[in-house]
Specification:
The protein has a single domain, classed as Porin, CATH 2.40.160. It has an eight-stranded antiparallel β-barrel with strand order 1-2-3-4-5-7-8-10. By secondary structure, the chain is mostly beta strands. The longest helix is centred in the first third of the chain and has 16 residues, at about 1-15. It has helices at about 1-15, 45-50, 70, 195-200; strands at about 25-35, 50-65, 75-95, 100-120, 125-145, 150-155, 160-170, 175-180, 185-190, 215-225.
């Protein structure tokens, strides 16, 4: 894990060093995060048995580093899309078959990966990207009420994930559509050695699938790029 993270950082720095700074696009954006119905390794049918509805929010801060020397084209550019900070919060309204009323998940990540930019007309650009996600922090918690105190905390370890998507940029406006999935291990704060994946699986009499929880979602964001 550490070697992979160091390799990603080294690749990131190397590619930045050959980019032309005046064409780089710094951006920030925020919007709606729509978690999949297949959370924590459960099927859609299983997840629907205890979740009534779901919602989420997302925020990203990053730069697209344009590597203009690679293609030598007026309207196509290869680049590196790097999110310095990406925050994602998902909230699930849980049925009373569980002892608590709500399940929330928060994570903070950094992302980096290649991008391809196509500029068909003046001021309009499309960016297609694929990124490796480094999950620095993740927390899951059960709540008795929406704004009540948390009853159970599950703290995550550093993990890797993946995301891919499309940016649509017009002048300084930026629309982002992204599919993201990460699989952190989130361990109980009160009972070390117990993981939320095991806790949820126990309700469906399923075999232990391991400690990692797969958390796919779609993010729809709006922001500015400069």
């Amino acid at each position: 894990m550490k070697k992979l993270i160091v390799s990603l950082v080294f690749l990131f720095i190397t590619l930045i060093s050959i980019s032309q700074e005046f064409d780089n696009k710094f951006y920030f954006r925020f919007g709606y995060s729509n978690p999949s119905w297949k959370q924590f390794g459960l099927s859609e049918t299983e997840f629907n048995q205890f979740v009534n509805k779901k919602m989420g929010v997302s925020f990203e801060l990053g730069t697209i580093f344009m590597l203009n020397r690679i293609l030598q084209s007026n309207n196509m550019v290869i680049g590196i899309d790097a999110d310095y900070l990406s925050l994602n919060y998902n909230h699930f309204y849980v049925d009373r078959m569980f002892k608590n009323g709500n399940l929330a998940h928060f994570r903070a990540t950094s992302k980096v990966g290649p991008s391809f930019t196509y500029n068909p007309v003046d001021k309009l650009s499309f960016d297609i990207f694929a990124k490796a996600n480094v999950v620095w922090s993740s927390v899951a918690a059960f709540f008795e009420e929406v704004y009540g105190d948390a009853d159970d905390f599950y703290m995550g370890k550093v993990a890797l994930g993946f995301s891919t998507g499309l940016n649509i940029r017009y002048d300084i406006l930026m629309l982002g559509i992204e599919y993201e999935t990460v699989s952190p291990m989130m361990e109980s704060d009160d009972y070390p050695g117990s993981y939320i994946q095991e806790y949820l699986y126990s309700y469906f009499d399923k075999d232990n699938s391991g400690k990692k929880s797969k958390l796919p979602c779609f993010n729809f964001t709006l922001g500015l790029n400069f």
